[in-house]
Write a structure and sequence with these properties.
Elements: H1 10-25, H2 30-49, H3 65-77, H4 83-103, H5 108-115, H6 132-142, H7 147-162, H8 166-170, E1 177-180, E2 183-189, E3 195-199, H9 202-213, H10 233-247, H11 261-274, H12 279-286, H13 291-300, H14 302-310, H15 323-338, H16 349-360, H17 383-404
Antiparallel strand pairs: 1-2, 2-3
Helix pairs in contact: 1-2, 1-4, 3-4, 4-5, 6-7, 6-10, 7-9, 7-11, 12-13, 15-16, 15-17
Length: about 400
């Protein structure tokens, strides 16, 4: 029994944190408590296996900031965890040390050092999802004439049409599958202790009804394992991986791809988005906390990006002259300048196009008697170009003057 004033040991602190503080004082869900417990199991295993510390002699001082940093590095290097998983484990450790700071004030220096460890930044990748053909291939691969095959078919079909997280999926009980007002629906206990109701299509409801009636009367989970107990998250991942591997034989695009339960969830969201559903409706369906979480599906939708490009106005082709056009046009202008009676070379296609462009840029204004309105080449141009332009302007003016004078 703990005496007054006695500093609690590390095992006592862990036990109080997991059995009293999290579930009763903070109201954490069972999944949160299980996740935190897994983190501390990994830390203890790291201290015993990697640091060669005695399990029975572990103390709070052994979990220093250097030990925590070594553990985080161990997760990434030896266990192959991604930075996101590493940050999740660090969050659990920080939550425990915040509790330790209240229970053991003498360890505040150690607590502050652990709490100062930063979260690791990582690249945000686009959401991975399956096409309709790939999703159909996975569902067909899971449908086999065995007990586990019928369960896997019902399990993965429900996962697609409800977009459930894997934890939500395995926690669905038979009593959560209901038929009310002619609509079949399933009640899901989601993340953050939130509950939502999802309506099922008629064919999916008939499949689940047939599967539910085949279960024994004493089985509570809707998707049990062979012993009648609730499936684990890793068990669902293994069954899905097996179905995806089998489906890759008829769908080559699935070869080498990692299909997880969360990929199925992303697939549902992307298919709904591509059908024109609003972000607010998708966020409600998915059980997201905010629209910012749902926004990532917009960034991954190639169909919406294509529609955005199609909405852009068509730009007119550039009227900038090429080198050949400029040389041919100025050659024609030089011929006009030298003599009005001299033979003028035939205009090529480039010259005709260049002169049409000149006309569009104000050549017609050269007939004005007001010298101040005489156009000049844009951008200044070279001395020769300005001279050629001036000669062309005078020649056109002289010819029009001669035409307008009476004949002798």
């Amino acid at each position: 029994m703990k005496r007054p004033g006695q500093v609690p040991s590390l095992p006592q602190l862990l036990e109080e944190f997991l059995t009293e503080h999290l579930p009763h004082e903070r109201g954490a869900s069972r999944s949160t408590v299980q996740s935190y417990s897994t983190t501390f199991q990994l830390v203890v295993a790291y201290c015993c296996d990697e640091l060669n510390l005695d399990l029975a002699a572990l103390e709070l001082a052994d979990w220093s900031s250097s030990t925590v940093l070594g553990f985080l590095l161990h997760l990434e290097k030896n266990r192959g965890n991604a930075p996101r998983t590493r940050n999740q484990r660090l969050a659990a450790i920080k939550s425990f040390f915040t509790y330790v700071g209240v229970r053991v004030p003498s360890a505040l220096v150690q607590v502050q050092q652990v709490l100062a460890i930063p979260q690791k930044r990582f690249d945000e990748r686009l959401v991975g999802y399956l096409s309709r053909e790939e999703m159909d291939a996975v569902l067909r691969a899971a449908d086999r004439p065995t007990w586990s095959g019928r369960r896997d078919r019902a399990l993965l079909t429900t996962a697609y049409y409800t977009a459930c997280r894997v934890t939500e999926l395995v926690n669905i009980d038979r009593r959560d599958f209901l038929l009310r007002d002619g609509l079949a629906h399933v009640r899901v206990h989601g993340k953050g202790r939130k509950e939502r109701v999802l309506v099922l299509p008629t064919k999916v409801a008939a499949m689940l009804r047939a599967w539910e009636e085949s279960l024994a009367s004493g089985v509570a989970p809707l998707f049990p394992n062979r012993t009648g107990n609730r499936m684990t998250r890793s068990g669902v991942s293994l069954r899905l991986s097996a179905a995806a591997e089998f489906a890759a034989k008829e769908c080559p695009s699935l070869q080498g791809r990692r299909v997880s339960p969360h990929v199925i969830r992303h697939t549902t969201a992307m298919h709904i988005l591509n059908e024109g559903m609003s972000l607010a409706a998708i966020s409600l369906f998915m059980g997201h906390e905010s629209l910012e979480t749902t926004h990532k599906y917009l960034e991954a939708s190639l169909r919406l990006k294509r529609k955005t490009l199609e909405a852009l106005p068509t730009l007119s082709p550039s009227r900038r002259w090429s080198k050949a056009q400029r040389e041919e046009a100025f050659g024609f202008l030089d011929a006009l300048k030298r003599s009005g009676r001299a033979a003028v070379p035939d205009l090529g296609a480039a010259s005709r196009e260049a002169l049409r462009a000149l006309a569009g840029n104000g050549l017609g204004a050269a007939t004005s008697t007001d010298a101040r309105r005489t156009p000049r080449p844009r951008g200044g141009g070279s001395l020769a170009a300005r001279s050629n332009w001036a000669g062309l302007t005078l020649r056109i003016r002289d010819r029009r003057t001669n035409r307008s004078s009476p004949s002798q």
